[in-house]
Amino acid sequence: MEHTPIKNFNDERDLRLLELLSQTFGTVSAASTEIINLEAILNLPKGTEHFVADLHGEHAAFNHILRNASGNIKRKVTDLFGNSMRESDIRQLCSLIYYPEKKLELIRIEEPDLSDFYNITLHRLISVCQSVSSKYTRSKVRKALPPEFAYIIEELLHESPSDEDKQAYFSRIIETIISTGQADAFIVEMCRLIQRLSIDQLHILGDIFDRGPGAHLILDDLCSYSRFDIQWGNHDALWMGAAAGNDACIANVLRLSLRYANLTTLDDGYGISLLPLATFAMETYADDPATQFLPITGPESRIDQKTCQLIALMHKAIAVIQFKLEGNLISNHPEWNMENRKLLHHISADRQQIFLPEENNTFCLNDTNFPTIDPQDPYRLTSEEKSLVEKLHHSFRVSDKLRRHMKVLLSNGNLYNVCNSNLLFHASMPINHDGSFKNVFVLDGHYSGRKLYDRISHLLRAAYNDDAPAETRQYAKDYYWYLWCGPDSPLFDKSRMTTFERYFIDDKSTHIEEKGAYYTLRDRVDICEMILDEFSVSGKHRHIINGHVPVKAVKGESPIRADGRLMVIDGGFAEAYHNKTGTAGYTLVYHSTGFVLVQHEPFSSVDEVIRTGSDIAGTTVIVESSAKRIRVRDTDKGRVLANQINELKALLHAYRNGTIPERKK
Questions:
Q1: Which of 47, 542, 617, 661 has a C-alpha 20 to 30 A away from that of 21?
Q2: pLDDT one-digit tens code per residue, 372-387
């Protein structure tokens, strides 16, 4: 890559840039040194990027992926010690790296010679750390070091025990760590450092929330994680809308939590009290069996029958409230063209049947108990329902932790991201059946393609911006619900969300949600190329990476489509999807030699990993291999650094011809 200095540095704006730059690099020597440093960085191998999608609250599995770098750490250990260690010993070393504190507790009980164990293990961990840090500059590694052991680790990383002149020095450091009783603490910090250095950038393609119990724990992890970005999914938008005060979003969040008996995130995570809803449900639906609303639980569920029945009553109560709130929201926004999703007024007077306009047919209801629906005004909340909604609204609005987590989503998230020739978005690109971009109305006009994504991204932030006009802020809050289930929403893109039909009508023909054109046309190379062009994605090898639609590997579906242009990496992290997909999620790994897709096995438990060295990284498939190693110069970061080098060279030129004077030390 050639670097061309700024030619017209006498231009006023360019000259001002160089003057600002001179405040940091005030001499020829300083500017030259930085150029040398940046040129060296350009020749390092690119950092490893990990892509995950649709985590759906599965914190244990997600946390394990962060700890094992989607199997990358085990690959490093195997490369280093595959010829000198047994497979069982490699697994045990890896489990130590993943969970050092708990593994050391077990080792201290079982290991007869701790001093020997410490000596061997420290040497091995140093070798692993040297391997994972080799892609980075010393400066970057130094910033990742734990302060209490920074000097010692840095010495060990950059010295070789095989060097005769340094062997005694190296060995003495190890011996002293052990003799001073610091071995456990040192091992823990080394393991954490290996974890940090094994993933350079984490991309989360949406749907952190719902189904699983640990969405709040995932966001807790991300609060202390420095290198990640999020592409919002429809479930994330739902929670963002709820936190912003959209009552229809709040009702949906509660309904989904009750549907999967996932009360942990609401109660323990965000302090949302469900007592008012439980009280209302027991009083209003006391004798209702609510069969259709019994929660979906896994085989390991410990919920007793009495609790299941209470959850079912709460589930039904909030579902009915949801349909009322949504009906009113639809009436307030005729431009959304969703009148066909207002169904309560089509229930027959005897509550036995419902007419569906879209089917132009009448269907029997499997549940006829609607004590709070007034046939004359079916979308009006009763006074008790209104009071309940106000209490729930208050709980969501005053949750400090929920507010902090929404800030993480807003600060680190967007509807899409372009990174290193990859276009990332959660679900869909609204397009017509002829392959052209669909015009979608948003607030003040029609938008399509990238402009649609940009307009929606800006709008969503307005809901949390007190400086935005009140009308815009309110529309933004309402629009979160449209993103969740609107037919032209890029996070949904289906003809309808048949929530009412799935609960109350047995005829499955009414449950069909017709997908938008993107979901079929995206398998075509020309469509993917058109979308990549729209977002100005450059590079010889460029891709679209999506989540949202689970890939049913058990039925032979492949996550790689359109001749490699598209990768769909929703493999079903949520336990509820495992039987449908045949996998427990995917991680796409992009390192300096190409793309690797890791298909995960179900995560058992941390105790199982510690005890047996088991792992969740299953099948690994090489998706795309590079003929030559990809360097930093070939990445987006490389282009930024190249521009910085150009500017520094122009500054050197300005110093040498006297246009800008060097600064005195």
A1: 47
A2: 999 999 999 999 999 9
